[in-house]
Amino acid sequence: MNERIRLLFAEAVDIKLSTLQNSEMTIEIAFIAPLCEVNKINDFIIVPFSKAENSFQNQLDTNPDYKIIEDVAKWQELLLRGNVLIEADEIIYSFNVSRIISIENPQTQVESAIQGPQLALSEDVFISLNLIRSMYPSPDLSVEEHSIGSLSKTPVFALFDQRRVDPTVLDNVRTKLTTINVEMLHAAGELEKLLIGRRKHLFPTVLITERPDRITKALSRGKIIILLKGNMFAIILPAIFFDFMHAVEDDYDAYWMTRFLIFLRYASIILTITLPALYISVVSYNPELFRVQLAFSIAGSRSAVPYPSFVEVFIMLFMIETLIEASIRLPRYIGSTATTVGGLILGQAAQQAGLVSSIMIIVTSVVAISNFVIPVNTLSFAVRFLKYPLIGVAIFFGITGVAVGMFIYITYLCNLRSFGKPYMRIFGKLRPLEGDIGQVNTE
Amino acid sequence: MNRYFFYNFILVSFINLMLYVPHILIQLRYSGAVSSMLVGIVIGSILVYMYSSALARYPEKGLPEILKLHCPKWLVSISMVFFAAMWWFATTIVVVAGAILINRFFNPDANVTLLLAMLVLACGYAATRSTLSVMFIVEIGLIVNAPIIMFVMFKAVRSPQLNWDAIRVVANYVTKMPTLTSVAAATFIFTGYINLSIFNRLFPPNFRFKFRWIYPLFGIMILFITFFVPIGFHGTEGVNQYIYIWSLTADSMLMQYGFIERILFLFLIVYLNLTLVYTMSGWHQAMELIKSCFRNSKPEIDSPKTLISNYVIVGIFASLTILYHMLTNEKINMYITSFWLVFRMFIEILTVIWVFVLSRRRSTAA
C-alpha cells in the first residue's frame, strides 16, 4: 500500500509511511502527521500492536471505528481528512484520528445578548452540533452531510426538524447544495452567495448567525440550518425581512418594552432611509411643508451655505460613510482615534466653516445612529445603501420622488423570495383550517 | 384572510376622490345626488353580495378561468380584452389625475409629463410582479396609508368649521329623482369587489367570505363623508367652484401641534401612495386578463421568473397612458370620466349577473 500512496502524493515530508511487525502479523500504516492526533495513533494502533496482548486482527474486526476501504480512489481524501490507513492481510482499514484546531466554545461577539445564552457556535463543527443537539433534544432532528468545493472539500451539514420542515424548501436546498460548483469554500457568507445563486443581490435572504438559541428556535419553526466546518457561523434559511429586525432578546425581555424596541427599530429604519432625501426635498422644493417657524430656522441655518442642498448632503454623507468604514476596518486601538477626530470635524468645524448647515449635521448623525439600531449586521449594510437612490430621485422630483422611491422599495421587498417563501409580507392571524393566501394548487 | 378582500374594497373606495366622484356628485347636489347615493348604496351592496357569493363557489379561480369553464373561448377572449381595457382606463384616469394634482399643489414648476412618466414607470415595475406580490404590496400600502386617511376624515368631521346647516340643506334635496350619472358615481365606492376577478385566484379552497355586512357600512361612511364634508366646509354654493374639491377641503384644516402644519401635504402624499397602489393593482389585473387570452396561458400566482409578456403588456399600458395624457386635457378628462363611470356601472352589473347565473346553474347541475 505504501508504495502506491507515495505515488499518489506530491513529495512531502509530513506523510508518514511505515511498516510494523509483531509476532502475529505485519501491518503497514500511512498518515499525514500534522493533520493527526499522534497520541491517538499511539494509543489505538502502535501500542496495542507492539504489546500484542490481544490479537490485533481481532481488534480490527470488532471495533467499528476501523472501516474497511475497498475503493483505492478514496485513499487520498481519507488521508487528507486526517485518517490513518492500515493495511493488514491485504485489507485496507481507515481510522479517524483527525485533529482540529479551533477556539473552544467562544463567547458570542457579533450578536450579543445581555440575558440569554452567552455561548456561540464553535469552529469545530462537532462541538456546534453538540450544542445544537443538547439544546434541541428531539429525535426528529435530521443531519445531512454534503461536501462542497472541488479543492477544499468542505464538509457542510444541513440540519432540520424532519416533521416541521417545509418539503419544497428542503428539496430546493438539497438541489442547490448538490449542484454548487466551486473550488474553495471557507466562509458562511461565501456559501450564502452560492445558495442564493443571484449575482447581484441587495437584501440578505438567508440569516447568518452564531447564536445557538436562534438556531434552535429556527429549527422549531421548520427552518433549515446549514453548518460549515471551520466556521463559527451557521446559515438559517429561509429567512424573511422580519427575522433580520428581530433580536433574540425580544423573546427574553418584558413584553411592552420589547414591543417599544421593535417599534423603535422600524422607526429608525425609515428615518435612516428617507431623512437625507427628505432634507433635500424640503429645502429645495417644498419649504412650506413644515410650519413657518421650522421652515425659517432651517433656512436660517443654511444661510452661510453657498451651494444647493444636495451638494451639502453628499459632503456630509461621504464623511460619515468614510468614518464608519474607517472605524470598522482599523485595528481596535486606532479605531477610537478615528472616530474622535471625525466626530470633532463633523460636529463643529464643518458647520462653522460654512460648508454645511447645522440641521444637516443632525440629519447625518440621525442617519448614522439609526442605522446601527438594526440588530443583524447584513441587513444594516443593505439599508445603508438604500438612501442613495432616494437622494437621486429627491434631487429631481422632491417629496413626490421620495414617496415613489419608497413604493418601489416596498415592491422590491415584497417581490423577493427566500427559497420560495415571501420575503416581506404582513402576517395576520392565520386559521390553519382556512389556509393562507396563495396556498392553492397550481398543478 | 377576509382582510385581503377588504383591502381591495377600501382601496377602491378611497380612490374615488381621484376619479372626480365627489365633484360629479356635488355638481348634481340639487338635482338628485342625495337620492342617487341611496340608490347607489343599495345597488353597490347587492353587487358585493352577489359577486362574492358567486366567486365563493370557484375557489382558486379567477374570472377568466370561470368563464372558460362555461362559455366558448372566443367570447371569453373578447370579453377579457374588453375588461382589460376598462381596467386600464380606470387606472389611467387615476394616475393622470394624480400627476396633475402633484403638479398643481406640490411641484408647480415640474413638467407634468415627466412626473407622469415617473409614476408610470414605478407602477409599471410593480404591476409586472406576481399576483401574490401585488397583493402583499396592496396590503402594506393600505396599512400604512389608511390610518392617515381615517385621521384626516375624523379631523374633518370633528372640525368646528364644518357647517352642519349647509349639509342639512343639501340633504333635504333627497326627494329629487336620482340621475344616472350620480348613481354611477355613487356605486363606484363599492366597486372594489370587481378586483376579486383576478385576486380570487389567491384564495385557498377552504376560504369563506365573512363579515360581509361591513362592506355596505364602510361604503356608506366613505360615501357620506366624501359628499357632505366638502359641502360643510365650503357652503352649498362655494363647493361647486373647485374640481379638486378634497385637496382644498384638506387644506381647510390645520394640525395645530404637528410639525407638518397643513393637512394638505399629508393628504397629498397619502393619495399619491394610494394612486400608485391602485394603478399597480389595476394594471396587474388588466395584464393578467390579457394574458388569459393567450392560447397556452396558465394562471400563475407566484411565478419565480417575470415573463417577458408581462413587460410587453404593461409597457403598452404605460405608453398608452402617457399618450392619453398628451391627447387630452383636464376638461376632456373629466367629461370622459363621467361617461366612463356610467359605462362601467353597466358592464359591472352585467359581469356580476353573468358570473352569478353561471355559479347558480353549476350548483343546480351538480
What distance lies between the first and last C-alpha atoms of chain B, to the nearest angstrom? 28 Å
Strand content of chain B: under 5%
Mean pLDDT of chain B equals 90
Write the H/E string of chain B, N to C.
HHHHHHHHHHHHHHH
Question: How many β strands of chain B by DSSP?
Answer: 0
Please summarize the sheet with the most strands of chain B.
none
Rg of chain A is 29 Å
**Count of extended strands of chain A:** 12
Name the structural class of chain A: alpha+beta
The tally of domains of chain B stands at 1
Radius of gyration of chain B: 20 Å
Q: What fraction strand of chain A?
A: 5-15%
Explain the layout of strands and helices.
The complex is a heterodimer of chains A (443) and B (366).
Chain A (H helix, E strand, L loop, with lengths): L1 H7 L6 E7 L4 E7 L5 H14 L4 H7 L4 E3 L5 H6 L2 E6 L2 E6 L28 H11 L5 E8 L5 E8 L5 H13 L8 H9 L10 E3 L2 H9 L3 E5 L5 E4 L3 H4 L10 H30 L7 H10 L7 H21 L2 H21 L5 H15 L4 H21 L1 H17 L1 E2 L2 E2 L21
Antiparallel strand pairs in A: 1-2, 2-4, 3-5, 4-5, 6-7, 7-9, 8-10, 9-10, 11-12
Chain B lengths: L1 H14 L5 H7 L5 H23 L7 H8 L2 H33 L6 H16 L3 H28 L5 H8 L8 H9 L7 H4 L14 H21 L10 H7 L11 H29 L16 H20 L2 H36 L1
Describe the structure.
The complex is a heterodimer of chains A (443) and B (366). Chain A has 443 residues and is an alpha+beta fold. Chain A has 3 domains: 2-96, no CATH class; 125-239, no CATH class; 253-422, no CATH class. Helix content of chain A is 49%, strand content 14%. Chain A is built from 16 helices and 12 strands. In chain A, strands 1-2-4-5-3 form a 5-stranded antiparallel beta sheet, sandwiched between helices. A 5-stranded antiparallel beta sheet of chain A has the order 6-7-9-10-8, sandwiched between helices. In chain A, helix 12 crosses helix 14. The radius of gyration of chain A is 29 Å and the shape is elongated. Chain B is mainly α and 366 residues long. Chain B has a single domain, classed as Up-down Bundle (Amino acid/polyamine transporter I). Chain B has 15 helices and no strands. Chain B has helices at residues 2-15, 21-27, 33-55, 63-70, 73-105, 112-127, 131-158, 164-171, 180-188, 196-199, 214-234, 245-251, 263-291, 308-327, 330-365. Chain B is globular and about 60 Å long. The mean pLDDT of chain B is 90. At the A-B interface, helix 16 of A face helix 6, helix 7 and helix 13 of B.
